[in-house]
Write a structure and sequence with these properties.
Number of domains: 2
Radius of gyration: 22 Å
Number of strands: 5
Number of helices: 6
Pfam family, one: DUF1294
Organism: Arenimonas terrae
Strand order of the largest sheet: 3-2-1-4-5
GO cellular component, one term: cytosol
Order of helices and strands: EEEEEHHHHHH
Distance between the termini: 70 Å
Keywords: Membrane, Phosphoprotein, Transmembrane, Transmembrane helix
Protein name: DUF1294 domain-containing protein
Strand content: 15-25%
């Protein structure tokens, strides 16, 4: 027997929430793994249809979940889904590194700028990936403020790649708002450092270049 209900109290970081049935009764636990393969991530208010399964303690778990109007489809390779989504943000990050390389080759940017962006991006990428893994295993998470500070310092290109390849922090609107603010703030700060000549002085002092 299938039921219809609405998603509530969805925790994007942990991948679970609840469904409140339209016809009344007890709400059921919802886990991201119970959705049809290839389905998008749910948000509060989504209408779904589902079946009920009891866990070992007799609690209701929603299984075989489909969004309202979603057809029943055979599982598809996840690689096909992921091959479409990562490209925009990855392209933005790689395009930015391309601009850094061109600017350095034309002596517009000191060597320190691409070196700093590369190292900080690698660090940021690892932090996002590890935070995603921690979320999946219920381990201690990296504070969002730490991720934002790393992005502000210049790790945002690596964050762009990590967000898409690991599907992490891309849905949470509040996080994305602060993230894009850190990107703009970082670019403004680097523009000032380059325009004022400070970046070249630092590059000469630290790298001799």
């Amino acid at each position: 027997m299938r039921f219809a209900g609405r998603i509530s109290d969805w925790n994007e970081a942990k991948g679970y929430g609840f469904v409140v049935p339209h016809d009344g009764g007890d709400r059921a636990f919802v886990h991201i793994k119970a959705f049809q393969p290839g389905a998008r991530r749910p948000v509060d208010g989504d209408l779904i249809s589902y079946a009920i399964s009891k866990d070992g303690r007799g609690r209701n778990n929603a299984v075989d979940i489909r969004f309202a109007g979603q057809r029943i489809e055979a599982p598809r390779p996840r690689t096909a889904e992921r091959s479409r989504r990562p490209l925009p943000r990855i392209a933005m990050a790689l395009g930015f590194f391309g601009l850094l390389g061109a600017g350095t080759a034309l002596s517009v940017l000191p060597v320190l700028v691409p070196v700093a962006y590369t190292l900080l991006s690698l660090a940021s990428f690892l932090m996002y990936v590890l935070d995603k893994a921690a979320a999946g295993h219920g381990a201690q998470r990296t504070p969002e403020s730490t991720l934002h500070l790393m992005d502000l310092a210049g790790g945002w290109p690596g964050a762009l790649i990590a967000q898409q390849t690991s599907r992490h922090k891309t849905v949470k609107t509040s996080f994305q708002s602060v993230f894009w603010f850190t990107v703009v703030a970082n670019l403004a700060a680097v523009f000032w450092l380059v325009h004022s000549g400070t970046a070249r002085l630092l590059s000469t002092a630290w790298l001799g270049m």
